[in-house]
Specification:
signal; single chain; Cytochrome_P460_sp; alpha+beta; Cytochrome_P460; Cytochrome P460 family protein
Amino acid sequence: MKFRNKIITFSAAVVLLGCTAIAAAPFGGDDSVDYAKDLWALMVKHNLAGKDAIMTRPYTGMPPHGMILELLEQKVTLHDVTGELVVKRNYGGDGLMIGDVINSPDKYLQAITVMFRREAGYDSDNNDWFYAKYAPDGSLMNNPKGMALAGRVAKGMPTGCIACHQGAEGGDFIFNHDRYK
Ligand code: HEC
């Protein structure tokens, strides 16, 4: 009887642990998806995305982001947290030139990859960045396993947003500059 109780306690612990693991999924969970939706709405409000988005002069990029890129940065407030928002527009297409993108940005826009610095403690090992990858219409893109690319994307995995960005010089996870150290 005692032994049976132990088994029951053990099974309950396993179930509990399993639930905690799901609740604490580093990315792609409901919390992250909802947060990414609010972030997209904020980007549209600030003209960083959507049909009235500010256009800058695109530059030539490198993989894994697009052939041609645009970068916009602004401090914004989401859910009472004010942080840096970095928006990268990724353009692609065969033999694509900067002039093509300037003249028809919508035709070549493939994805919008975003980093937003959330509240301290959100992801202290990784400078509290929230990552998201959106399709041009604002819907979230998925990884090959069907997980939405939003949150602490691919935390602990050998490839993906965090694994690659942690190699950025300055230790701020940002490649283009070291202002957010
Ligand atoms: C294999 C490496 C790699 C992966 C994976 C990667 N990035 Fe990047 N990312 C870069 C490099 C290199 C740059 C800077 C060069 C450039 O402008 O493309 C960059 C630039 C950026 C920037 C502009 C800020 C900066 O760091 O300069 C954002 C925002 C961004 N990436 C978001 C993401 C998101 C979101 C993901 C995951 C969905 C992701 N990246 C995955 C390498 C990577």
